[in-house]
Amino acid sequence: MKSIKALAPATVANVSCGFDIFGFAVEAPADEVIITLTSTPGVVIKQITGDGGRLPLHASSNTAGVAVEAFLESIGSEQGAEIVLHKKLPLGSGMGSSAASSAAALVAINHLYDNPLSREQLLPFAMEAERIACGSAHADNVAPSLLGGFVLIRGYAPLDVAKIPTPPNLYCTLVHPHLELKTEDSRRVLKASIPMKDAITQWGNIAGLVVGLMKPDYGLIMRSLHDVVAEPIRSALIPGFENIKAESLRNGALGCGISGSGPTIFSLSTEYSIAERVGKALQQQFESMKLKSDVFVSKINDAGARVVA
Ligand SMILES: Nc1ncnc2c1ncn2[C@@H]1O[C@H](COP(=O)(O)OP(=O)(O)OP(=O)(O)O)[C@@H](O)[C@H]1O
Ligand SMILES: N[C@@H](CCO)C(=O)O
């Protein structure tokens, strides 16, 4: 039976001001999924590595399995699939761990059927998997992981996504402290409504970031990378957040914030050397609080999930 391997990258959701509507893909880390078609129906997770035995092996509870089940049903296939997942993204990290598994699985299974669906058409299956993983079908991790680049989710009903062009010299530093935050929990702490003055600040920043990326205008990007909705509440869940952010900006980053629902911190810089320096500085900050961390520096990944063999 035919078998294929695909990779899907980590993603930074929200990007400070764009709660649930912005996300971009980075180069690494990336989850790896190998799918083999079977002649009998049903999706089976054959093996998972790299998760310390923590992820569900039951297909209907694992984002890779849920996405493949939804795909096979949508094309009316009578075949089944076996999935091997090499988990490279840390769980509950804010780097889109649950999304990377479903994105890789969808790109692999779609390829095995000669790509009957576009990347955009695969999105609802990955969103359904997000609902299983964290109780909310947000698309700001799955969309950039599947489509690549910097993605706007303009609306959810109906789903309307658009890629925002980004300048070639934009580097992302991800610093992942060895802490876990469940998306479900960090969504629960947010308020159901926001004051009008915060809404005005936020939509000014959202529009400013889009214009800043498209022009490009780095001053505008810098002024727009602020969040008055989620960060003021969620930052309490990340030890030393204010110092961490100040240190990133002091080292030359354009902006710094919580990646997705945290605890990973993202920073954007205009040069690789600045992005590296920011990574080292933030790692030292976490170390001073006796927290180990991993650093990933890369450009924005315009391709997203890809088949590798
Ligand atoms: N294949 C999978 N990979 C990762 N998590 C999965 C997977 N399948 C199911 N899950 C469940 O999803 C949850 C992890 O999702 P969570 O949203 O907390 O982390 P995350 O994806 O890293 O965060 P974020 O969405 O903030 O980037 C865990 O409870 C885990 O059991
Ligand atoms: N937009 C989502 C992303 C989770 O990674 C949130 O912040 O809850």
Automatic annotation (TrEMBL):
Keyword terms of this UniProt record: Amino-acid biosynthesis, ATP-binding, Cytoplasm, Kinase, Nucleotide-binding, Threonine biosynthesis, Transferase
EC number: 2.7.1.39
GO cellular component, one term: cytoplasm
UniProt keyword Nucleotide-binding present: yes
Broad class of enzyme this protein falls into: transferase
Catalytic activity: L-homoserine + ATP = O-phospho-L-homoserine + ADP + H(+)
Domain GHMP kinase N-terminal as annotated: residue spans: 64-149
UniProt-annotated binding residues for ATP: 90-100
Location (main, coarse): cytoplasm
Pathway: Amino-acid biosynthesis; L-threonine biosynthesis; L-threonine from L-aspartate: step 4/5
InterPro entries: GHMP_kinase_C_dom, GHMP_kinase_C_sf, GHMP_kinase_N_dom, GHMP_knse_ATP-bd_CS, Homoserine_kinase, Ribosomal_Su5_D2-typ_SF, Ribsml_uS5_D2-typ_fold_subgr
Domain of life (superkingdom): Bacteria
Xref: NCBIfam families: PRK01212.1-4, thrB
Function noted in UniProt: Catalyzes the ATP-dependent phosphorylation of L-homoserine to L-homoserine phosphate.
Name of the molecule in the record: Homoserine kinase
Taxonomic classification: Bacteria, Pseudomonadati, Bacteroidota, Cytophagia, Cytophagales
Encoding gene, per UniProt annotation: thrB
